[in-house]
Amino acid sequence: MARPGGQSQFSARLTAKRADDSAVRRVMDAVTGDPAADHDLGSLARSAGLSTRHLGRLFRSRLGMTPGQYVEAVRTEAAQVLLEGSGHSIEEVARLAGFGSSETLRRVFQHRLGIAPTTYRARFRSTVTAPSPS
Fold first, then answer.
1. Rounded distance, CA 108 to CA 63, Å?
2. 94 and which of 20, 80, 102, 129 could share a cystine (Cβ 3.0–4.6 Å)?
3. Which GO terms describe its molecular function (predicted)?
4. What is d(CA 70, CA 63) in angstroms, rounded to the nearest whole number?
5. pLDDT tens digit string along 41-71?
């Protein structure tokens, strides 16, 4: 079953439940708690008390993705929520979700969801406001 508005079937929040390593959990909590913060690999590894290489190995073995891919997934979900429920401009959504620019947001959306943020917002709103058949 397809989800409306080009929504991704992947959820970083659901993936988080599968992580059983406390260091991985700490990193995931930091990212989901503040997606807009600077989450470069070095700072994530320091917060977990691990080397960048070991953190990468743990992420790949526990979650099947790199820390950078996880950060991008969380930021994408944050942007989706903002696009669905706010009137913020695309530039503001990009800033609040942790993307450096609206162009980066657009590029990541296109890559991950196959749709532009403005189109996502329009499709999501049209599915929410469309009357249900009686």
1. 20
2. 102
3. DNA-binding transcription factor activity; sequence-specific DNA binding
4. 9
5. 999 999 999 999 999 999 999 999 999 999 9
